[in-house]
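User: Reviewer 2 asked us to show a designed sequence for the structure in our supplementary figure. I'm pasting the structure tokens here. Could you produce the per-position amino acids so we can include them in the response letter?
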């Protein structure tokens, strides 16, 4: 956005020069259940966007959990397969050993009939010793074979269960991915409608009533937070260029239309206005005397005079006013009016909030 100094003739001239391009309205669902509210129903649009944002966040959380579970199940299946392969190799070695033992017994008389062993033995002790060794060897071999076969069967069953679980998790992950895509489609349609109505409001310099979104307050650490939870930093404070009359007076946060915007700290709403280069904007005065501005909004959830808490949802981002794309323009000012801005990144860092 362009950050201009206030001038009595500048804002009307700028508004006349702006051309508002509104996204096409979304098609309503046949049964109306997932239809985007009528373009004039701004409260319904704001609430729908807020609800879809929560649903999208939950779907993303479930998808990531499902993806991690699929990886875990896949690792389990591969581990069982490796164990089964090792067990089969051990069985192969054992079978080879059994062959050697059998051949050795045959050469030493272990395979002779009991009558022949009686005739060839030098005495009862040799006969008993030969029979004892033969019995022990046969028992050990038999036990080893049985144990190996049981282990192989158990591992094969575990491998089958692991692969079945992996397939089930993959199916669920695919369903969650489709759910995310469906929510994203609905959210995109609702965003377009919300921005269309916001553009109309900003062009007419007429603010609509605040839409109380009743969003659950996330737990925040400390007395100050960033104005949006997830973002990409774009134009910074003091940046020059032909997009601004002088220098950029704030910090831009690149976020999609409808992103919940929150108060960076406790205070009172000093101003809610529409129209002009900042479009729909909110200014909050904090107890330390500084003010924070939130501009280019698509909707507001507070009114002038309201008390707000740290992290409280105060509106939804957009691209109203002199904006080249969806983002939040955030300023820190010495007074509520334009022209008194300080570096917001340094100011937030001094309050324990580091952006990045």
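Assistant: Here is a per-position design you can include in the supplement:
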């Amino acid at each position: 956005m362009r950050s201009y100094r206030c001038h009595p003739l500048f804002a009307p001239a700028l508004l006349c020069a702006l051309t508002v391009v509104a996204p096409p309205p979304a098609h309503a669902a046949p049964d109306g259940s997932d239809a985007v509210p009528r373009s004039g129903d701004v409260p319904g649009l704001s609430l729908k966007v807020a609800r879809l944002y929560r649903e999208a966040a939950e779907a993303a959380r479930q998808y990531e959990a499902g993806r991690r579970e699929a990886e875990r199940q896949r690792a389990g299946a591969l581990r069982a397969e490796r164990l089964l392969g090792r067990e089969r190799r051990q069985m192969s070695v054992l079978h080879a050993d059994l062959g050697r033992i059998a051949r050795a017994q045959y050469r030493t008389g272990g395979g002779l009939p009991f009558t022949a062993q009686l005739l060839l033995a030098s005495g009862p002790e040799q006969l008993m010793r030969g029979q004892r060794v033969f019995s022990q060897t046969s028992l050990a071999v038999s036990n080893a074979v049985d144990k190996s076969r049981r282990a192989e069967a158990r591992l094969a069953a575990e491998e089958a269960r692991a692969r079945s679980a992996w397939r089930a998790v993959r199916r669920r992950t695919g369903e969650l991915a489709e759910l995310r895509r469906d929510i994203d489609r609905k959210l995109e349609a609702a965003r377009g409608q919300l921005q269309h109505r916001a553009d109309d409001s900003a062009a007419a310099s007429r603010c609509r009533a605040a839409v109380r979104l009743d969003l659950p307050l996330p737990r925040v650490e400390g007395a100050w937070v960033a104005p949006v939870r997830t973002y990409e930093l774009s134009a910074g404070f003091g940046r020059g260029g032909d997009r601004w009359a002088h220098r950029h007076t704030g910090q831009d946060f690149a976020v999609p239309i409808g992103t919940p915007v929150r108060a960076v700290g406790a205070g009172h709403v000093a101003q809610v206005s529409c129209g002009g280069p900042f479009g729909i904007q909110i200014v909050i005065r904090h107890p330390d005397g500084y003010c924070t501005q939130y501009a280019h909004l698509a909707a507001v959830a507070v009114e002038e005079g309201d008390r707000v808490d740290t992290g409280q949802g105060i509106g939804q981002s957009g691209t109203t006013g002199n904006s080249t794309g969806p983002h939040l323009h955030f300023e820190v000012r010495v007074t509520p009016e334009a022209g008194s801005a300080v570096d917001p990144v340094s100011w937030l860092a001094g309050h324990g909030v580091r952006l990045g």
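For the response letter, you might also mention the following. The CA atoms of residues 281 and 295 lie 4 Å apart. The beta strands are 232-233, 251-254, 260-262, 267-273, 280-285, 291-300, 307-308, 313-317, 328-333, 341-342.
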